[in-house]
Design goal:
By secondary structure, the protein is of the alpha+beta class. It contains 21 helices and 22 strands. Among the domains are: 99 residues, Orthogonal Bundle (Arc Repressor Mutant, subunit A); 54 residues, Orthogonal Bundle (DNA polymerase, domain 1). It starts with a strand and ends with a helix.
Length: 623
């Protein structure tokens, strides 16, 4: 019989691994139960971390003391900052990773985390007494007692894999599905649904002709995810880009009658923004090609991930179609693409701390909540682990506001609006995205994490140095004038008007196509200040430049966030009966009763609740 634990985490994917780490690092005794110890934090889909908005999430996880950024840096084979041509709110870091190394680094970090124990088994049900979770039951028949449970079941709950007309139970390629938890939760009163996701074929890189593709190199000066002492890459592997064509599309269409997507065997919804290749050519029939990213799976393997070719068509159709792709004429397939259906639990059943409304100290994180993506899962796991630790000690939940993090936007969207299709994070989902940049996650969150007990004192000192350095540089730029003869040649080259008299350096930097490094190359005083901060120099210069160039936009968002934050501080009493308020619209009464918002700000973000409804509630609450 295993001992009693503070927190049991079910599932060791990205959500489960972060949940176990955060709860353990706060001092809880944690048991991480996984079906396969060899697949901890497995990259079951693409071998990459970050990307648009997702890179911001990884930086936030790192600032809060999570492991995903560190592991991503240690297993990276390429680093790119996406959207450099756009404003800094859109810049998003991304790593291509060694799949096996990523898995190994995660296991090493967890094994070196005090308070984490492991158990290889399945969980078939949770034990509940007086509406409070008290343990789990495993496939081996063990009953393990605990004070809190975090369910991070990924795609394993009643998972069903589809390849053409074949289907079979499974949670991932080569792994069995998990049965029992869904049925147990139904008995407790939870509602569930079905979702779908898919993955592309994996192919033999030795069979590809890269000379027919576009090479996609990493950044010339690669950065990294973590604010800790991980090192940037000194060498990188290239990805490649190729395209489908009309011949590929016609061959794929020959298998549509055997496609589980089109013949009715799959009825659940897949990710809107990451559709299968058959869905693409069906929905976008006017397009004669679609972009494919040819991504290596690691340093020492020939296995290739064909990003953009997710499919559940029959194996023969997949192979014949791929052979029509430029560079894939002689392709050899390691394994075909497939689709997978699985159970999820609509997240309207959760509180802001990811605890379920029906069962105390039971938390859900990751794809069980209807999300898709490693990053979305990892950040939920981090928050669920933190709050599982806090809940069993009757401490206040750790909840972030939408103006503070993409993590908060994701969780608030889920618990307030729910989702009927796999939820993926985008920069457009955040109304304060100029405040929530990838470069300032440490400034936003490190101190909060340190007070919680996760981020180290050194992290806080780094943030203080970064703030001090940025302030010194801004003060210097605002008080120092640019001499026309020192800058007019550069301005002329940039097609910007010349200086006719002295101008403060911050005003000069605010011009388009002119930046702080242009001043750095000329002004010895600026170089002296910035170089004094060593490894933080580039971070400080970037902060100062963004503050100057986007000063108006940043202040506007801060003002908006402050106004909206006033509603977030107006609490709504638990158990309020909305049906008593005849002035509320019927839809508002129904939605408010279903979601049970904890404050007026959350209520205002519920789909179907109008500003007039909020005014009615505001009048009532003020009484």
């Amino acid at each position: 019989m295993l001992q009693e634990y503070d927190v049991i985490v079910v599932g060791a994917g990205h959500a489960g691994s972060e949940a176990a780490a955060s709860a353990a690092n706060l001092g809880s005794k944690v048991l991480l139960i996984t079906m396969d110890m060899g697949r901890i934090a497995q990259m079951s889909c693409n071998p990459a971390m970050g990307g648009i908005a997702k890179g911001q999430i990884i930086r936030e996880i790192d600032a809060l003391g999570g492991y995903s950024g560190i592991v991503s840096d240690r297993s990276a084979i390429q680093f790119r900052m996406l959207n450099r041509s756009k404003g800094p709110a859109m810049w998003s870091p991304r790593t291509q990773n060694d799949r096996q190394l990523f898995n190994q680094e995660w296991r090493i970090m967890l094994e070196n985390t005090p308070n984490v124990d492991f158990w290889q088994d399945t969980v078939t049900s949770v034990k509940v007494r007086n509406d409070k979770v008290v343990g789990v039951v495993t496939g081996l028949g063990l009953e393990i007692n605990c004070k809190s449970v975090v369910l991070t079941c990924g795609t394993f709950l009643n998972g069903l894999i589809h390849i053409g007309e074949k289907n079979f139970g499974g949670g991932r390629a080569g792994e069995k599905a998990s049965y029992g938890i869904t049925e147990c939760l139904h008995e407790l009163g939870f509602e569930s649904g079905r979702m779908k996701t898919g993955t592309p074929p994996r192919v033999d890189g030795r069979s590809l002709d890269y000379t027919k593709m576009e090479e996609q190199k990493g950044d010339e000066l690669p950065s990294k995810f973590s604010y800790s002492d991980t090192k940037p890459l000194s060498k990188q592997r290239s990805c490649h880009i190729t395209y489908t064509n009309s011949d590929v599309h016609e061959l794929l269409k020959t298998g549509f009658d055997r496609s589980p997507m089109f013949n009715g065997r799959i009825q659940s919804l897949g990710p809107r923004y990451c559709p299968s290749i058959e869905d693409k050519i069906n929905r976008f029939s006017e397009r004669d090609r679609h972009q494919l990213f040819v991504e290596p799976e690691g340093w020492n393997t020939v296995e290739i991930y064909v990003n953009g070719f997710s499919t559940s068509l029959p194996e023969d159709v997949q192979l014949n179609a791929m052979k029509q792709i430029k560079g894939f004429e002689n392709v050899k397939v390691f394994r075909p693409g497939y689709a997978i259906e699985y159970d999820y639990f609509p997240p309207l059943q959760l509180k802001r701390n990811l605890e379920t409304k029906l069962v105390k100290n039971l938390f859900f994180a990751g794809q069980i909540n209807g999300t898709t993506g490693y990053e979305e899962a990892a950040c939920q796991g981090l928050m669920a682990g933190i709050n599982a630790h806090l809940a069993i000690r009757d401490l206040e939940p750790f909840v972030l506001e939408r103006k503070e993090a993409y993590i908060a936007v994701l969780i608030d969207d889920l618990i307030t609006k729910g989702t009927e299709e796999p939820y993926r994070m985008f920069t457009s989902r955040a109304e304060y995205r100029i405040l929530l940049r990838q470069d300032n996650a440490d400034l936003r969150l490190s101190e909060k994490s340190h007070k919680l007990g996760l981020a180290s004192l050194q992290r806080v000192k780094n943030v203080e140095s970064k703030n001090l350095g940025t302030s010194q540089i801004l003060q210097y730029l605002k008080s120092t004038s640019a001499e026309p003869q020192n800058y007019n040649k550069i301005l002329e080259e940039r097609l910007s008007s010349k200086l006719t008299q002295k101008q403060k350096l911050n005003t000069l930097i605010s011009r388009p196509h002119f930046g702080i490094h242009d001043v750095l190359n000329v002004d010895a005083g600026l170089k002296e200040i910035s170089s004094a901060y060593g490894e933080l120099e580039e971070d400080i210069l970037l902060q100062a430049e963004i503050d100057i160039k986007y000063e108006g936009y940043i202040q506007k968002e801060k003002d908006l966030a402050d106004r909206m934050n006033q509603l977030d501080h107006i609490k709504i009493p638990h158990g309020i009966d909305y049906h008593k308020f005849s002035s509320l619209s019927m839809e508002a009464r129904q939605k408010l009763t279903e979601v049970k918002p904890s404050n007026l700000g959350q209520g205002s973000r519920i789909s179907g609740v109008s500003p007039a409804d909020i005014s009615v509630l505001l009048v009532h609450l003020s009484k």
